[in-house]
Amino acid sequence: MRGGLLLQGQKDGAESPLGRIPAPKTLSLPLDQHAATTMHPVVQVGEHILLGEVIARATDQLGPWLHSPVSGTIAAIDSQRSPHSLSRRVTTIHIANDGKDEPDPAMRPVENPFEIAPSALRERLAHGGIVGLGGAVFPTAIKLAIGDQRNVKTVIVNGAECEPFITCDDVLMRERAQQVIDGTQLLLHACCAGNAIIAIEANKPRALAAVTGALQAVGDGRIQVVPVPTVYPAGGERQLIHTLTGKEVPSGNLPADIGFICQNVGTAAAVSTLIRSGQPLIRRIVTIAGRGVARPQTLETSLGTPIATLIEHCGGYVDTLQQLVMGGSMMGVALPTDSLPIVKASNCIIAATAGDLISRGRALPCIRCGECATACPATLLPQELLRHVRNDNRDALGDLGLTDCIECGCCDYVCPSQIPLTSIFIKAKQASAGNG
Fold it and tell me: What CATH number was assigned to the domain covering residues 109-277?
């Protein structure tokens, strides 16, 4: 991989086995949990629902549905802030948990999934609420359909968990390697691809051993397990494709245009769970990290659980807490409160102290040192982008590839002038998109 950073890992959450906490008394499920789709509720206040029952459906044909993680009663449907929509309110379904976990009889496994049409399997994934669990939450069925349409040859299953604090994929691969392999086989069938590569960072020897062993037990010659260098952001789609194959995804194109689809290892495991047991995506694995929490851990929890519940399970905060972050320390989003719920994108919650965050002082003028260009994994020229953003030269920004910025934060990290380049570029991209 070109560019990138060697970051010190803060992987305390991987030291203990995967924990599991019971669902809380009340769960809150925002309807903005899936990228590029819109959902609407299909339940009413006061209605009794079952574990796994559909509570919201997508308007798109292959958009993912949302399901109840518990049995109980619809307590309210209102507008709340969510981790994805801090600046606005979104429709949110609140469920009072009755503690019985009565399952929806519609939750049934798919018999002989490799014998059904790939399109039927994709529809089942959409109805089961499956999305990318690496943080982007793009609908899996839509991505697989694009792959089928464009004759994708290779599925890349991404286990390159390169953010310093996140451990959920590492722990998943160690403890549920067979599900990762089974899910990979199902993904191959769903997009009609011929082979798969499971990419795992070289600093995860136990995960590499577990997934390799599970693959050997299955004996599927279409799948390879490949270690990749421990460089941030090795897990970016385009960067991972280049690392594994040497091929470039052209600007303005999708990985599917050159024969690849990338899916997270957590997504693969969720696909296996859905197809083999009938359970939709109602739980996810979350890393609780940072020196601001007493006992960092990796936990499996129900969607809709308040972040505060997970923090309490990990021994609560310590006095030095400075900021709460969802996602990684490089690309995460600062949260204003721990009353917000866990959503499908919540791969990590960092209770950050000052030492966990990039130290920032007053931004100084750019000295044209070029360190940002050296670090940029997308081979952009951030110093030139900055100049043209300030001059509002949108033609030049297009020529320089602003839309190819992956918002990884590498340029921020190395900038001696402490210029918040990534946030500047994000705002410029949003302004450009808003103007056509």
Answer: 3.40.50.11540
